[in-house]
């Protein structure tokens, strides 16, 4: 009797069973690796978030200590915000933009020896008119408008613009220097972009727009409001509070100006936190909303 066929059948059955066993083992191993990878990524994510919360709590504790000593942290930064120069190029907003930009350019640059001509109101008006003409020309040619290609065509305005564009290395709104244009101005179409964001303005920038008297009134009012508030709840003036001060000082076109001003404050959140396991390439993302 030939037993070889039986041996082959037996071997084939063993091979099949071994392959199934190995496949199941491999599948279980993969599942275990995935589970471990998920847990590692989750642990890293949680650890990252706890570190962020701990750092935030330490910062808050320091701020509370400062307030307890009656030392209010600065509400406005020295760097300040930006003014949207595109408002000068739009006929619907040109008038209100001119009034503000004349004051801003004259006060931000006119105090420096290199820009003595900017102390002359008619010179500043001509300067802005040339900027508008250049911007309008670029719009007609469907060219992208930027601070770099907004050069006035005539001298001495062209040379002055070049100096303003470059700025100086030290420029903290001091007499020793002046800021480059990119630190003060942007070019963005309206809706949703506004002429400027009031909460982001520095006290120097408030002086440029509204004058020193109104700036002091704003600073005083904000100090009164925030005197009894916790550090995390301090705020700048809202629209109605600012409008009240402007009306008291008879600031022209206050309602028209404020309709183009943003009063939104930036909410502090944890930007996307991630936990990643390099072995399984599993990434978990946490977003606070």
Describe it.
- Helix content is 53%, strand content 6%.
- Strands 1-2 form a two-stranded parallel ribbon.
- Helix 3 (94-109) crosses helix 4 (121-140) and helix 6 (203-210) crosses helix 7 (212-226).
- The chain has helices at residues 4-68, 86-89, 94-109, 121-140, 157-166, 203-210, 212-226, 239-248, 254-258, and strands at 83-84, 185-186, 196-197, 261-262, 273-277, 282-286.
- The radius of gyration is 32 Å and the shape is elongated.
- The chain has two domains: 4-70 and 270-286; 83-258, no CATH class.
- By secondary structure, it is mainly alpha-helical.
The strand line-up of the biggest sheet is 1-2
Number of domains: 2
Count of strand segments: 6
How widely separated are the two ends?
80 Å
Instruction: State the order of secondary-structure elements, H for helix, E for strand.
Output: HEHHHHEEHHHHEEE
Report the sheet with the most strands, covering strand number, pairing sense and barrel closure: 2 strands, parallel
Measured by DSSP, the beta-strand proportion falls in 5-15%
Given the C-alpha coordinates, what overall shape results?
A: elongated
What characteristics describe this protein?
single chain; 289 residues; mainly alpha; 2 domains; two-stranded parallel ribbon; 6 strands
What does this entry show, briefly?
With 289 residues, this protein is mainly α.
